[in-house]
Specification:
Elements (H helix, E strand, L loop, with lengths): L5 E6 L3 E7 L2 H6 L7 E3 L2 H10 L4 E5 L1 H11 L4 E4 L6 H12 L2 E3 L11 E7 L5 E6 L13 H5 L1 E7 L6 H16 L3 E5 L3 H6 L1 H10 L3 E5 H7 L5 H11 L2 E5 L5 E4 L5 E4 L13 H14 L4 H15 L11 H7 L3
Parallel strand pairs: 1-5, 1-9, 2-7, 3-8, 5-6, 9-10, 10-11, 11-12
Antiparallel strand pairs: 2-4, 7-8, 12-13, 13-14
Helix pairs in contact: 3-11, 9-10, 11-12
């Protein structure tokens, strides 16, 4: 196996985040489901973009947030995702490269345009997302850079990409390329509703391709259709060597390949301002640690540090270098 050039190579939905703080009743007034990710069509996207008159924009997407977090830790990261040749696509590419992430997937002539996620952030810090996938799910096997995937210690796959068949095939192909090169493959389940839409496919993928599984508690319970976390973890561990389950203020649980279970305390944060990207940044810290040979406990702690930083302010990316926070924690 050749030396890895990247710590993490991610495959995901390339999305521009359009986010705004809103009062609680704003959700009901505009038909937005609280705390969920709802898929929308272009007309709905245009409507919400219009009513979010004071929004801030940033290049985003779940796996994209993760690899920018890896870069903030001082790691080397690359990304494969589809944008259109429009203003939002140009913005995504520019911001992404500025964050230190390699991104060379060619833009696609529109329409449809670059994907966007309209995020309402209520006073309790919850984010309610309305996502127009645009051209992001038009990623196909031909867009995969096999040499790039082989050059990463870990390939990270975003569950949201499972919403279209062509993208799903590309997703599975990326896993096969990575496994064929002797690399590890990580998957995030992304969202409870995403799990419910693709439960059987996710279960099959975890059984046959995945070395590291990320999920929050609700997602893991949904994957195995049980209300018992211990039972869900036991099932996941039969198929996947490493399972990391985030539990908000309760921290996280990390199940290892030798039957070990690590309980990770949530890192402290001065205030919960915006939970956008918390799971994505947890994955960033964990994957960075794993790529650099850290123990599972330290991987979880790095994830906690990154998640705590990102929820302390608006936006899905760290505002201070995560490598500095890791150094201050002795990691």
């Amino acid at each position: 196996m050749s030396a890895a050039l990247y710590d993490v190579v991610a495959v995901g939905n390339a999305i521009v985040d359009i986010q705004q703080r809103t009062p609680e009743d704003f959700l009901g007034s505009h038909g937005i489901a609280k705390g969920a990710m709802t898929l929308i069509e272009e007309d709905r996207a245009l409507y919400l973009t219009g009513v979010f008159a004071e929004a801030t924009l940033a290049a985003g997407g779940s796996a994209a947030n993760t690899v920018t977090g890896v870069a903030s830790f001082g790691g080397k990261a690359a990304y494969i995702g589809k944008v259109a040749d429009d203003a939002l696509g140009e913005r995504f590419t520019r911001e992404f490269r500025a964050a230190g992430v390699a991104f060379d997937t060619p833009p696609r002539p529109g329409p449809p345009g670059t994907a966007r996620c309209v995020i309402a952030i209520t006073p309790d810090g919850q984010r309610s997302m309305s996502t127009y996938l645009g051209c992001s799910t038009l990623l196909t096997e031909s867009d995969l850079d096999a040499a790039l995937i082989r050059s990463g210690r870990l390939t990270f796959l975003e569950g949201y990409l499972f919403d279209r068949e062509d993208a799903k095939r590309a997703f599975v192909k990326a896993a096969e390329i990575a496994k064929g090169a002797g690399r590890q493959v990580a998957l995030t389940l992304s969202d409870v509703f995403c799990v419910e839409r693709h439960r059987e496919s996710f279960q099959h993928l975890v059984r046959g391709h995945i070395d590291v599984l990320f999920a929050n508690e609700a997602e893991l319970l949904a994957l195995y259709q049980t209300g018992d976390l211990d039972q869900a973890l036991a099932t996941a561990r039969r198929h996947c060597p490493i399972v990391a389950v985030t539990r908000s203020e309760k921290g996280s649980l990390v199940a290892g390949p030798e039957g070990d279970m690590v309980v990770v305390t949530a890192a402290s944060t001065p205030a919960v301002i915006d939970t956008t990207g918390a799971g994505d940044l947890y994955a960033a810290g964990f994957l960075f640690g794993l790529a650099r040979g850290k123990t599972l406990g330290d991987c979880g702690r790095l994830g906690s540090i990154a998640a705590a930083e990102v929820i302390s302010h608006m936006g899905p990316r760290p505002e201070v270098p995560l490598k500095d926070l890791a150094a201050a924690a002795g990691l």
